[in-house]
Amino acid sequence: MARLFSMIGSRFVIAVPYLWLLVFFLVPFFIVFKISLSQTAIAMPPYLPVFGLEEGGSGFVRNLRDLSFENYLWLFEDALYVNAYLSSLVIAAVSTLLTLLVGYPIAYGMARAPAGLRPLLLMLVILPFWTSFLIRVYAWIGILKPEGLLNQFLAFLGIIDQPLVILNTTSAVYIGIVYSYLPFMVLPLYAALEKMDYSLIEAAQDLGCPPLAAFWKITFPLSLPGVVAGCMLVFIPAVGEFVIPDLLGGSRTLMIGKTLWDEFFFNRDWPVSSAVAVVLLLILVVPIAYFQRAQARAREQES
Amino acid sequence: MASLGSTRRTFAPWADPTAKPYIRFENVTKRFGDFTAVDDLSLTIYEREFFALLGASGCGKTTLLRMLGGFEQPTSGRIFLDGQDMKGIPPYRRPVNMMFQSYALFPHMTVEANIAFGLKQDGMPKPQIAERVARMLKLVKLEPFAKRKPHQLSGGQRQRVALARSLAKRPKVLLLDEPLGALDKKLREETQFELMDLQYELGLTFVVVTHDQEEAMTMADRIAIMDKGKVLQVATPAEVYEAPSCRFVADFVGSINTFEGSVTRAGSAACIRDRSGAEFRVADAGAAAAGDTVWLAVRPEKLRVSRERPADAENALDGEVWDIAYLGDMTVYNVKLDDGRIVKASTINSIRRLEDALTWHDRAWVSFSADAGVVLTR
Lengths: 303, 378
Fold this sequence. Notes:
The complex is a heterodimer. In chain A, 76% of the residues lie in helices and 1% in strands. Chain A contains 13 helices and 2 strands, in the order αββαααααααααααα. The longest helix of chain A has 35 residues, at 2-36. The two termini of chain A are 38 Å apart. In chain B, helix 2 crosses helix 3 (126-139) and helix 3 packs across helix 4 (155-167). Chain B contains 8 helices and 20 strands. Chain B is an alpha+beta fold. Chain B has helices spanning 61-69, 111-121, 126-139, 155-167, 185-202, 213-219, 237-242, 247-252, and strands at 23-32, 35-45, 50-54, 76-81, 84-85, 96-99, 173-177, 205-210, 222-227, 230-235, 257-265, 268-274, 279-284, 293-298, 304-306, 315-326, 330-337, 342-348, 363-368, 374-376. The interface between A and B is medium-sized, with 19 and 25 residues.
């Protein structure tokens, strides 16, 4: 009897994450997907058809016939959406690269720091999370605006006499993304670099390899799983990023997250914005699948 | 690798005053903060020598090896290799290669690529690299595994890859840090002889760090026994065993019985009275003067165990058989003297004789000749 309970118990424990994914991910996805196939309407909710239990089986079939992929076709007909997608991918890719360039030396320095100091450094990387993301992005407005801290400081040093225009440009978006996502890059890189056996570098040097060459031939290839993980963790959310382009990028920065927001709240076109979201998801499935495969490969290498 | 044991010759450049040392440590000290790992150490190693640094962990032997490899810089003192001062020369410009204790194989490269790594660094032409790698693979009998990654190999195979990689560049000196430490006993014994043959065949100088005295005794031409950053004795395995320089060496290499006492008659045909009052006759007390406190050290196999006191015994003690360890080829008796001291004596079981053997709690005599022991003054 006790065994039966423990069996049911263990099944239940396994079921919890699946249930979670079903209720909070799969079901909402299908709701969004269904809305993306609907037509916009001046109603509450603002789309048609609305499935209801009171209409019975024939009503259900009629409603089903009303669904169409029209909104998706629309997305590809209007250059705005295609451009927004492309621009999002480019901005995300460039900021991922920049984050990698900034994050790698940080992670490397942390991994090579004395063992006693490492928890403190790790803590410092995580520390920004203690402040709300929104507030930190707002703070960048104060730094980057024409009469902001950065311009004042540069003018004080005499480097510039005209304030630099950074706020409301793509540069500000890059700065915002690199700053906000840096910990997501540093942590997996640190994990990969920290577990690396330093005697490998010594062995490379012993075999006639100067330190810089040893880095490119040994350290960097061995940190690749960390590089891939970090890049994915930055790239995937950066593609759909809304807050940073909205607050720092101004109206000229075209990103899909912002387009989606405008579609949803200004145009009140739920079906089209849902279609935008579904297509975004499909676009991101590719790097996510690649990431999963890379992770599986890395695990296999280790065992 | 055919056994080359029979072609080995007497090799003793250290006994030749005209021989030029190949590696020279001159008053080398290495400190890590407050800790002195190597303490004012001087040492010479000759070309083609198989030299072992033997000591417990923390004795400074690995630090010494790493200084030779260029991974640590001496705090003071100088290291010469083939007449050249090694000061400030980084590891990648030294004509030595190291086989790391962890093997340090590059996990993202195949066996082949691991072995070729050092050759590529030197800018060797590709066909020559391929040829050298093939030769190395053959040398360590790993031809079928050339395309494997290190994680697909067994411990013994990895050890061979590490060896092949460190030999590929034909270094003047090969440094080996606990080369057999990760292998099981049987494989270790086999590999010991292979290493010796390899070293002889290639005419290289090997400096090996080990904590395993048996390993050092088997392989090395000379052994340096280290403790607390100092070298206590540098000698051939036989000298280290039969004529240890001090109690630490005597105790560290093999097992030994030591009797503390004072010299009652110095010189040859000396006498030592131990603290229980027993008088030992000793063939040679060396430099010890009458009245000095000394330790008479006798190896277990030089003691004889018998029921009766042998008539011709020069030195004899009686006690009770306290413990017997039957090891097949030999039997080790622990005989407890009446004052509580335990004396260890081993007997080769050269005759298949099962009856009339001594057994637990029998009264027994342990005896030894005047030249069986060595007199130690420290």
